[in-house]
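Hey, can you fold this one?
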Amino acid sequence: MALGRRRREERGAPAPVGRPTLALRDVVKTYVMGSEEVHALSGVTLDIGHNEYVAVMGPSGSGKSTLMNVIGCLDVPTSGTYELEGVSVAEMSESRLAEIRNLRIGFVFQTFNLIPRASVFQNVELPLVYAGVAKGERRLRTERAIERVGLTDRMKHKPNELSGGQRQRAAIARALVIDPGIVLADEPTGNLDTKTGDEIMSLFDELHASGQTIILVTHEEYIAEHAMRTIRLKDGLIESDVVTGKRRSQLVRREPHEARA
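Sure. Predicted structure:
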């Protein structure tokens, strides 16, 4: 471990502080499709700390979506270990996994996933309803989340009355309303034009600056440039792990699979 720390310091990467927010060790995920086994992840070792801003990239079939599903507790590893905030995911019950998804991880999807007949306020409030939060507190937290994404004047509108960028802002507010430990964004600008996509990425930049941990999947290099670390997958393995330490600054490279513990 001392050698790994010395190597990181020689490259100029900041030494990690405390326990990482999430830690994967030799994670394998295999799916059985008919008579064949598909190895979506083939031994991924990875740490992500609090307030990191990470982009996950890779070609189709590289394992990036599977990695996001594992990180988001939508799926569990076939083998290896995954600890989220110091707790082993493999030891969690289905109800506990659902609780983690509802309360500790904010999801942002390419397709927005808003309820068409519900207003912006109702869509953003929904996770708090599921969590059993009292009505008065729900209103305060929902209004605060909507304000953070700049949609206060649209909170009574339904999704079909919003632009694509406004729909994604509503989806981000819904992710933020639970005060998540991690925001996972899967191609968050995929359905948006370039200008609107830039506006959404500026919002993610602001969230990161305020202390939010963000992990996003993207196939666009210019989107990944917003992150402070880019992980590239190939054939279910980490091909490269690049840290800038500061956006668009001089790159610092790590060895693939090098743990940050």
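The radius of gyration is 19 Å. Let me know if you want another pass with a different chain boundary.
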